[in-house]
């Protein structure tokens, strides 16, 4: 371990204040890793045992603090729309004309929405992106139940009236 790693300077009071005002357990533990190093002089192995972090993550947090200060320890929350093309407000604005068309009885075509979407964001995207957008805003495909093109209503009705009532296998007695 190099001597440079052993040197960690910072304001212990500011760390204590941030620890008290932390919003969740994980944020508290990130500040605690640096605080234990500054105020108590604990080793990386001891800090890892106290905080239940791995030694490599403790070293990485110390390095982040050394490079960027206290604000670097505010790591963004996990998950979310990290690769979004538009914000939800922009998506609502984008979908509004199509929604008006659907309300007036028009048929929506995904290919039309897809080309408009690509023009809006300025690059090519997969069609699945548009389907996900539609799903996110509560749209679904509603279509009538299909029927055979050669079906005849008269034949169907006569079968319902005169057809076999039940299978012969079901009427057998053991």
Helix content: 55-70%
Cα end-to-end separation: 85 Å
Number of helical runs?
10
Q: Outline, from the CA principal axes?
A: elongated
Strand content: under 5%
Uncertain segments of ≥5 residues (pLDDT<50)?
Answer: none
SSE topology string:
HHHHHHHHHH
SS class? mainly alpha
Key terms for this structure?
single chain, 174 residues, mainly alpha, 10 helices, elongated
Topology:
Elements: H1 3-6, H2 12-20, H3 25-40, H4 44-51, H5 55-68, H6 88-103, H7 110-121, H8 127-136, H9 153-162, H10 168-171
Helix pairs in contact: 2-3, 3-4, 4-5, 7-8
Question: Any overview of this molecule?
Answer:
This protein is an all-alpha fold and 174 residues long. Among the domains are: 3-73, no CATH class; 88-136, no CATH class. It has 10 helices and no strands. The protein has helices at 3-6, 12-20, 25-40, 44-51, 55-68, 88-103, 110-121, 127-136, 153-162, 168-171. Helix 4 packs across helix 5. The termini are far apart. The mean pLDDT is 84.
């Amino acid at each position: 371990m190099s001597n440079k790693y052993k040197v960690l300077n910072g304001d212990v009071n500011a760390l204590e204040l941030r620890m008290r005002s932390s919003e969740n357990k994980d944020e508290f533990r990130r500040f605690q890793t640096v605080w234990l190093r500054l105020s108590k002089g604990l080793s990386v192995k001891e800090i890892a045992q106290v905080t239940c972090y791995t030694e490599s993550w403790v070293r990485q947090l110390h390095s982040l603090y050394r490079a960027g200060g206290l604000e670097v320890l505010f790591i963004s929350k996990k998950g979310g729309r990290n690769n979004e093309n538009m914000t939800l407000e922009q998506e609502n604005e984008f979908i509004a004309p199509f929604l008006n068309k659907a309300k007036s009885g028009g048929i929506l075509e995904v290919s039309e929405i897809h080309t408009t979407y690509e023009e809006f964001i300025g690059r090519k995207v997969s069609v699945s992106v548009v389907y996900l957008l539609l799903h996110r805003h509560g749209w679904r495909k509603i279509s009538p139940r299909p029927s055979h093109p050669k079906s005849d209503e008269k034949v169907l009705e006569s079968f319902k009236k005169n057809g076999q009532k039940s299978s012969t296998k079901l009427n057998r007695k053991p």
